[in-house]
Design goal:
A hairpin with a 5-residue loop joins strand 2 and strand 3. Strands 1-4 form a two-stranded antiparallel sheet. The protein has a two-stranded antiparallel sheet with strand order 2-3. The chain is globular, with a radius of gyration of 11 Å. The protein is of the alpha+beta class and 68 residues long. The chain has a single domain, classed as Alpha-Beta Plaits, CATH 3.30.70. It comes from Kibdelosporangium banguiense. This is Ferredoxin.
């Protein structure tokens, strides 16, 4: 997806806060101390592959990567 822009969306009803996305893409996802998942909605071009990998690894399939 080199050269493409994407937008991330997390379904908070599906997310179980396992933080696998944070391990896969720490620049994009962070589990806060109060249990909320913080994430970058519009990753830069260099982060697109990390975003895709995090979505693939999510056991709840809560992360969607949409092309814009």
């Amino acid at each position: 997806m080199k050269g493409q822009r994407v937008r991330l969306k997390v379904d908070n009803d599906r997310c179980e806060r396992f933080a696998i996305c944070e391990m896969e893409a720490p620049d994009l996802f962070q589990l806060s101390h109060d249990g909320r998942l913080l994430y970058t909605k519009r990753p830069v071009e260099d982060q697109v592959e990390q975003a895709i990998a995090a979505a693939r690894c999510c056991p709840q399939q809560a992360i969607k990567v949409n092309r814009v």
